[in-house]
Write a structure and sequence with these properties.
- The complex is a heterodimer of chains A (109) and B (457).
- Chain A has three helices and four strands.
- Chain A is of the alpha+beta class and 109 residues long.
- Chain A has a four-stranded antiparallel sheet with strand order 1-2-4-3.
- The longest helix of chain A has 9 residues.
- The relative contact order of chain A is 0.27.
- With 457 residues, chain B is an alpha+beta fold.
- Chain B is 30% helix and 26% strand.
- In chain B, the strands form three sheets. In chain B, strands 12-13-9-8-1-2-3-7-4-19-20 form an eleven-stranded mixed sheet, with helices on both faces. In chain B, strands 5, 6, 15, 16, 17 and 18 form a six-stranded antiparallel sheet that branches. Chain B has a three-stranded antiparallel sheet with strand order 10-11-14, covered by helices on one side.
- Chain B starts with a strand and ends with a strand.
- The model of chain B has no long low-confidence stretch (mean pLDDT 96).
- Classes of the chains: A alpha+beta (109), B alpha+beta (457).
- Chain B: InterPro entries: AtuA_N.
- Chain B: It holds the Pfam family AtuA.
- Chain B: It comes from Orrella marina.
- Chain B: This is Acyclic terpene utilisation N-terminal domain-containing protein.
Chain lengths: 109, 457
């Protein structure tokens, strides 16, 4: 795969509100190999994700859920659900910046 | 126990309900609300499903529950669980009781705490932020259009122990609907709450995903089993385990009023090709009992214009053009005596960056067509329409670099072009409040109906 992206390894890549002020993104991988490859890579870095989503890196929570081959990324919403400037009340289309995250192996980037 | 559907009004199949009721169900539960559709429904006191669909679902469930003589517990009635939501659900249920001549004891659990109490708790430092958190002041607690408190299992336990056959609960933890009866009967709270969390979305955990449907939960002393009620659906260990992530910040921790459920040590195993056994959930009681407060406030009146831009020269300069619309609208509004702090104009550019905004990874790629939405929220409907009419005119006729299309910049799909959307709300309270007693802000009203389905005074 040339220039592999996170979406190339995912079976499900979705976003949703976790309450009115928190956004949560679930990446469920295709198989154990994909899960292992991505979790060992440098891709899921809080600072990189924070830059993409324009939130402070200390607010990006990355939680591995190996039982279902998943990674969960949770962060504050930019504005509350349904607030004047909001564009996505359910938070259901906020996964796209993560889709294009480059997956490179640690040390070889 | 039976979880009838993810939400009253989303529906379920009669086949699944009938199949479940032959299996010795102890009680039927259904959630009826969420804050996911945004602040409008809470603020405006309206449901986000139709009254017809609420009536359809409740009629089948009421009849099934009465026939089997088991409790029916509905949480977060009417969507928001506020007084108008409860009132709507109560009127539907009372009409059904009368129509079918049902004899039963109805409990209605209110969940709009008194404003003075909330203000006092704030002064005492007993209202806390929920991550990521924001400040709350007394004025917000006094002035917000509606504030509900999300109950745990305790008010439901109280109503059942007083003989309620049907419970209409205001804003209620989804899982509590299913955790209440098991807790009364001495089952492990960790398993009871985790089972509740697993089935509260009904057949969301089952496949094929053809509409909403019923799920059966069976609780034992060291594990629980979930299984779809519809014979054609199935659950797998990963579909069940994956649900602990859904709409939740963490898959391993669920915060409830009475404590925290930990699922990090859970085992999920298939017991056949349709059912899954779960074990290992634990529960840590909270050091202080808290309920989440959810509040919404009117923030103005909204009016919108939807239009399209196809002109490639305008699309190339769309960012500058958007700024011009904002600047010129501000000048024109000022001419009518409306200042920029009295309204907001949001320009949504569908096809370019309306959805992801500044997070858009492909913002540099210019589309060949852009859907333009002018979205004004102002202090009155009249004011919103006045500002919008200016913004629309400016979008239509403003000069831009290289302009050839001097008769009009945007394509309007219909006449009238300007649409009044009505009141707009925003979430103003999203905090945890300490209670002195789990029932403190959840008064319960009981109504007895006789064999003719009439109220007994």
């Amino acid at each position: 795969m040339s220039n592999p992206k996170l979406m190339d390894y995912a079976r499900i890549l979705r976003s949703k509100n976790a309450g009115a002020f928190v956004l949560t993104i679930d990446v469920i991988f295709k198989d154990q190999q994909a899960y292992d490859h991505v979790t060992r890579s440098a891709a899921l870095d809080a600072q990189i994700i924070a830059n993409r989503y324009q939130v402070p890196s200390e607010d990006v929570r990355i939680i591995a859920y190996p039982q279902v081959l998943a990674i969960k990324v949770t962060m504050p919403r930019l504005v509350g659900s349904g607030d004047l400037a909001d564009s996505d009340v359910y938070g259901s289309q906020q996964h796209v910046p993560l889709m294009y995250l480059p997956v490179t192996t640690t040390g070889t980037a | 126990m039976l979880a009838a559907t993810a939400c009253i009004g989303y529906g379920f199949t009669k086949e699944a309900l009938e199949a479940a009721m032959t299996q010795g169900i102890d009680f039927i539960g259904a959630d009826a609300g969420s804050m996911d559709p945004g602040p409008y429904y809470l603020g405006a006191g309206k449901p986000y499903v139709s009254e017809q669909s609420i009536e359809r679902d409740l009629e089948l469930l009421l009849l099934a529950a009465r026939k089997a003589d088991v409790p029916l517990i509905i949480g977060s009635c009417g969507g928001g669980g506020g007084e108008p939501h409860l009132e709507l659900t109560r009127s539907i249920v009372q009409a059904l009781i009368g129509r079918h001549k049902l004899s039963l004891k109805l409990a209605i659990i209110h969940s709009e705490p008194p404003r003075e109490l909330m203000v006092r708790r704030l002064q005492e430092g007993r209202i806390h932020g929920i991550w990521p958190g924001f400040d709350l002041n007394e004025e917000t607690l006094e002035k917000s259009t509606r504030i509900v408190a999300m109950m745990g299992a305790d008010p439901l336990i109280e109503a059942i122990s007083r003989g309620a056959d049907v419970i209409l609960a205001g804003r209620c933890s989804d899982s509590a609907i299913y955790a209440a009866v098991p807790q009364m009967r001495g089952f492990s709270p960790g398993l009871a709450w985790h089972l509740g969390k697993t089935i509260e979305c009904g057949a969301t955990i089952a496949s094929p995903k053809t509409g909403q449907d019923c799920i059966i939960g069976t609780l034992g002393h060291d594990s629980f089993v979930v299984e779809p009620a519809h014979p054609d659906k199935r659950c797998t260990p990963s579909s069940v385990a994956a649900h602990t992530m859904y709409e939740n910040p963490s898959p391993f921790e669920f915060v409830e009023p009475s404590g925290i459920v930990d699922t990090s040590q859970c085992q999920y195993e298939a017991i056949n090709d349709r059912a899954v056994r779960v074990s290992g959930s634990t529960f840590t009681p909270a050091s202080r009992y808290t309920v989440k407060l959810e509040g919404a406030d009117l923030c103005g009146w909204r009016a919108i214009v939807i239009a399209g831009i196809r002109d490639p020269i305008l699309i190339a300069g769309i960012r500058e053009f958007s700024e011009q619309i904002k600047e010129r609208t501000a000048q024109q509004a000022l001419g009518m005596g409306i200042t920029t702090d009295q309204y907001t104009l949001t320009i949504r550019r569908y096809g370019l960056d309306a959805v992801l905004g500044s997070r858009e990874p492909q913002a540099y790629e210019m589309p060949h067509e852009i859907g333009l939405m002018l979205d004004v929220v102002a202090q009155t409907e009249q004011q919103a329409l006045a500002v919008l009419a200016k913004a629309r005119y400016i979008a239509m006729h403003t000069e831009f670099d290289g302009r050839l299309c001097t008769a009009g910049n945007v394509a309007m799909p219909f006449s009238p072009s300007d649409v009044s959307v009505g009141p707009a709300y925003r979430f103003t309270v999203w905090h945890a409040m300490e209670l002195d007693d789990p029932l403190e802000v959840f008064p319960i009203e009981y109504i007895q109906f006789n064999e003719s389905g009439e109220k007994v005074e």
